[in-house]
Specification:
The protein has about 475 residues and is α/β, with parallel strands linked by helices. Helix content is about 30%, strand content about 15%.
């Protein structure tokens, strides 16, 4: 355990048979949370989380192995991706375990919607037995998580955003493996970075107070017989623990732990490039956008870089069409779609002609009977990225890939989205910060306000954990 003075009321919890501080490093793929950062977090007495999403592996000289996909078919490239995923995550877990020095605990994080999720998870657990304490898993409904955890005797921590989602998981599968439920991660859909579980019944523009949602989750857990000492992990928007004073040691909520996803990005051990770290210091309130461009179909939160703005603009240049003259669609589209018979409204025809004069000369159809207008270079990039797909998701709207059965979603490709593997690999390995997807939680603007980071100070993970434990 770390020797830091802890925030009032915060006590260690028993996790995987050992005492740890109830502060968890959020697992951020691709390669934004690795063995170095997670091992340091565990060494400081908390729970470090290695991302098992396209993790980096190393050659004999310790250099990162580039994830290059040379196979001709998408299915073969998908098999390469699974091999890269298993090898990389095993390498990172081993580094984290060694670095932890036997302190804290090491979790791994997987996305259930990533391509080959089950095969990768089982491969990693088989290759790291005795090192991994628990598996956090979200982005979908991971019903098989408890079954896999039981096979390898590790804890499992489902990531959910509502009591309803937990109840569904528990009723269908988790009640059969109650003894390995390590915690339930409540990831707030309006505050957390990355993908989240905002449902169709919830308004993305109307954030809800997390307290009643977490209380409802605890009430549901109690109704299902889950003991109060199984922690609920608050994830999303957590910066200063002192701001969550009424959550700690609160009988209504039971045992509570806190996940930090964004703050660990700006540490010495964080593997993200220096340009990304520098950019975090310049984020203002409102710069993180909750959007739905991800090829997963989920909402997600990321910094509104030029990359994200270009996706917003791409979707703005969009008009509905019909294959026949019907209703308000009374004029033929005469730009962007050579030789095609598309009918649109007179007003939308005006818009399309205006976009063409601006250089957006190429029309691309979407699965929703609309057409977007892009520049020729953008069209070429979109189509090349779709062709290069290696199946990083179980279902990809952008490329229409599915990782099982007939390997297609059965829907047309969606040019309003993007290749998420390409952009996340690029930003994590030194690519242009402004031209890539930069995931971040909505509290990222606080780097600019928090005096801890003044004068461009970058803490070690140990310094950050010690600071967090004081309440700041």
């Amino acid at each position: 355990m770390t020797t830091a003075m802890s925030f009032k009321g915060l006590k260690p919890i028993l996790y995987g048979g050992r005492e740890v501080w109830p502060v968890i490093e959020g697992g951020k793929g691709v390669s934004a949370t690795n063995g170095m950062s997670s091992g340091a977090w565990a060494a400081a007495g908390g729970i470090g989380t290695v991302s098992a999403v396209n993790a980096d592996s190393y050659d004999a000289e310790g250099k990162i192995v580039p994830q290059v996909y040379e196979a001709l078919t998408r299915k073969e490239r998908h098999e390469q991706l699974i091999r890269y995923g298993i090898d990389g995550a095993i390498a990172q877990v081993k580094r984290a375990y060694e670095m932890s020095g036997g302190n804290g605990a090491i979790n791994i994080n997987v996305l259930w919607e990533m391509g080959g999720a089950q095969e990768i998870l089982e491969g990693v657990l088989a290759g790291t037995q005795g090192m991994v304490a628990g598996v956090t898993c979200g982005a979908g409904m991971p019903y098989k998580l408890s079954e896999i955890a039981e096979r390898y005797n590790v804890l499992y921590l489902p990531i959910i955003s509502s009591a309803r989602a937990f109840r569904a998981l528990w009723k269908r599968a988790y009640h059969k493996v109650p003894h390995l439920l390590g915690a339930v991660v409540y990831e707030d859909p309006w505050l957390a970075g990355g993908h989240n579980g905002l449902s169709n019944a919830e308004d993305p523009l109307k954030p809800e107070d997390p307290y009643p949602r977490v209380k409802a989750l605890r009430d549901t857990m109690r109704a299902e017989g889950v003991p109060d000492d199984v922690p609920i992990v608050m994830a999303g928007g957590v910066w200063f623990l002192r701001e969550w004073d009424n959550w700690v040691d609160n009988p209504e909520l039971g045992s509570i732990a806190f996940q930090f996803g964004t703050r660990p990005l700006l540490t010495e051990e964080s593997p993200i490039p220096q340009g990304w770290k520098d950019a975090l210091r310049e984020i203002n309130d409102g710069d993180v956008l909750l959007h739905r461009f991800s090829p997963t179909g989920f909402y997600s939160s990321a910094v509104r870089t030029s990359f994200l703005r270009s996706l917003e603009a791409r979707s703005h240049r969009q008009i509905p069409y019909s294959k026949v003259d019907a209703g308000e669609h009374t004029v033929r589209l005469d730009v962007g779609v050579k030789g095609k018979n598309f009918w649109v409204t007179p007003k939308d025809l005006e818009h399309a002609r205006e976009w063409v004069t601006q250089g957006f000369t190429d029309g691309l159809r979407t699965p929703d009977d609309t057409i977007i207008f892009v520049a020729p270079a953008e069209r070429s990039m979109i189509q090349q990225d779709q062709k290069d797909c290696m199946g990083c998701l179980s279902h990809c709207a952008f490329s229409a890939w599915k990782d099982h059965d007939d390997y297609t979603t059965g829907r047309p490709v969606d040019p309003r989205s993007f290749c998420i593997q390409k952009t996340l690999q690029d930003i994590a390995h030194g690519g242009d910060i402004d031209q890539n997807l930069m995931f971040a939680g909505h509290a990222a603007y606080r780097f600019k306000q928090d005096p801890f980071y003044s004068n461009k100070f970058t803490p070690t993970v140990k310094q950050l954990v010690d600071r967090i434990l004081t309440g700041d």
